[in-house]
Amino acid sequence: MSALHNAIDCTTAPANTGAPLRVLVCRQWAELEAFRTDWNHLLQICSSASIFQTPEWLGAWWHAFGAKKQLLAVIFINADGETVGLAPLYIEEHSFFGMPMKVLRMVGAGSSDSDALDFITASGYEEACANAFLSWLNENPDWDICALETLPEHSRTARYISYERQTPDWRMYSDSTPNFLIDLPATWSEYLQRLESGFRPLLTRYPRRLQSRYTVSIQRCEREEELDSALQTLFTLHQMRWTGLGKPGAFSVAERQEFYFRMAHAFLERGWLEFWLLKLEQEIVAAQFCFRYGNTVSLLQEGFNPKYIADKVGYALRAHVLEEMIRSGATRYDFLGGADAYKVKFGAKQGCYVTLRFAGASWRGRAYLALQHQKQKIKQWLRRRLPAGILASLGSQQASAAQQKESTE
Length: 409
Fold this sequence. Notes:
Layout (H helix, E strand, L loop, with lengths): L21 E5 L2 H5 L2 H10 L9 H11 L4 E2 L1 E5 L5 E5 L1 E8 L2 E8 L13 E2 L4 H14 L5 E8 L3 H9 L6 E13 L4 H7 L10 H9 L2 E5 L3 H21 L9 H17 L2 E8 L2 E11 L2 E9 L8 H15 L4 E6 L4 H4 L3 E11 L3 H23 L2 H21 L1
Parallel strand pairs: 6-8, 13-14
Antiparallel strand pairs: 1-3, 2-5, 3-4, 4-7, 5-6, 8-15, 9-14, 9-15, 10-11, 11-12, 12-13
């Protein structure tokens, strides 16, 4: 299958948005790669695009995690033969009471690594792509559940699909998860003034105290020949905390390590990588793995040597990275998903991601979603009525179980 390589120019009003779109399906990654020029063009001209929609991110993810999955990447073509949207998807097989069940998900979902996934569409074609996608689902019913996860809260894809599928013939459920980000000011001093006075010393006084006790150096990984070693150090530092708690840790999964190697090399080549290392007396004791897309810097992963916890090495490194990003003109620092309380102390505000799950004609899909929805309602009921101590204990057990599940998938 050959790509058309003539994605629409969104700088002008889109033409033929009312005409039905033609749908092409790529079942091999090499087929989707043939559309890379169109793909990159759509990302370049659409202001809402995120790094999680790039070929670099999704390609690295697919090659690391896609071995047992069936690719179904959907390409939307308008009446003029222009590529106006892409939706990289895959089928994953599950078991429901011993019966096979097929779940359609977006490439990047399912490993707890990706955020802000969405269809990649030309401006003005969001509704047309959503309608074409839903028509394609109707005509190709070999799926039980469609799960569109971690969509941005203002996603037009989410809005149109949710609106179109609120019918008796379809069962749709939606939920949201929090994410946190900092709107960065023009100067470091202005940023510090926004913080609570009791928290500010962690980013000012403690880094100075660290300098008085050790020979400190902070470096950005910029050379390809040093990248693999730096990644191994990140894995080790991150694992130290989890193994110390008797838990496997994120990087006990071989596929995730492969994903980071592939993605980091691709990001370094594109100039997107913000991978920072802090050394004390020539020993790397903290690492922060970030990347930059446009004016947004996102924190993906970090780690530090627990031996230096009293020295606040993690805070010192984050303070340095934040200061450097502000100096370089970044306007946003994204903590990504997760409701960790410490993010608010850094001045982050809360947003959310939206997940849509729906089933069409499949009775298995409908039954599964109804059961999951009921379980969620029970959890919400318990949160309102159980004492805080019991809830904290249950939450800790659930987090431990999720960590163990992640390490074995």
